[in-house]
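Before the break, one more example. Copy the sequence into your notebook; we will annotate it together after we see the structure.
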Amino acid sequence: MANYSIDEVKKAIKILELSDTATVSEIKDRFKKLIAVWHPDKCQEHTEKCKEMAQKVNRAYETLMRYCMNYQISFKKEDIERTLAKDDETWWLTRFGDDPVWGK
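Here is what the structure looks like once it is written out:
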């Protein structure tokens, strides 16, 4: 059972300045960049604002990680193929092999 709401997830996406789709790696990278900017030890000016923003960034990251950790990933062959088909080269090789004209 989820312990967050859709609004919390949307708010977290906005705080971390993510697009509608992101990988876990992209979420982590964005978190690291933002916390480096807003961490109170790094941000000497406006310490209260920095502290507040660092807390928001941390909460947003925790929310998205909880969401991602509860997301069920399908390992069915057709779902894996559909995911891999997003890569043009993989799509081509899956259907036609490495022959540049007709495939296998």
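The chain has two domains: 6-71, 74-104. The helical segments are 6-15, 24-38, 47-69, 77-84, 88-96. Try to locate both features in your own notes.
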